[in-house]
What we know:
By secondary structure, the chain is α+β, with helices and mostly antiparallel strands. The chain is 39% helix and 18% strand.
Amino acid sequence: MNKKELEKVHKLIGTDINRYTVTKYINSGSFGDVFEAKNKKTGELVALKIPILNDERDGLHSLLEEAKVYKHISDRENGIAEMKIIKYNDRKIIVMDLLGSSLEELLNKHKRFNMQTIISLAISMISVLKHIHSKGFIHRDIKPDNFVLGHTDPTKLYCIDFGLAKKYIKKNGCHIPFCENKKFCGTARYSSISSHIGHEQSRKDDLESIGYLLVYLYKEKLPWQGIKHKDKNRRYELIGEKKSKTSIEDLCSGMPKEFTIFLKYVKNLDFDEKPHYSALKKMFYNLYKSKNYKDDKLEWE
């Protein structure tokens, strides 16, 4: 963000937007600026997403599309924030639950997570994905920035950013068909091998991304990090090739065998096959119990 944009953003602090007063700038995404705001009547803190509108980006359209997804899947109990749209001076603004730090922010602070935290996160992530998938959607952009803690409950994990989410169940109740030659979609570091070779994504791809994410959070690095190329698409190809050549055993070396089992299982799922979420959670839950941890506190508690 340049100086002019920063000045514009900070001018909003203290501004009243309907029943909310903007209290703090949080960050900027691809489609909008995010602020903390307080409900003037109740004192409740929320997050406001104000769309970016310029010649290059139609942030409003993107955020409204994301809001449609939230309408179908929002469920605080299952790790999806509540979202609504308000109007202000002929503009549409997104109001969301205020959430806490992302896993990426926490990793930058703690440098690496211990195995107790990794196993707990595995169970939580599988639970959140089970809920998203049960509503007929796949996320398609699993990464540590998109898993955040609750604002007041640092033990609660939420999944955010459904800008790339897609329905995998059609109106007639059937699974979308498998197809090839799709444009790459996601974040290259964590995306599935199928997404690199242009295959349509499904539930199994979200879970494969979870596997890479858990390894990253424990080891701080994945074998394909650092691959560079001036052409973005060629870089995606090179990362995909490295993923394909890296055995799951090597990737998960130094970690309990359950992580290898998890990745092998999800990679071998058929395109339209429903994952056995409960069995995967039970496997990690049994691993957690076998470790005899002295307390249930996560790394950041």
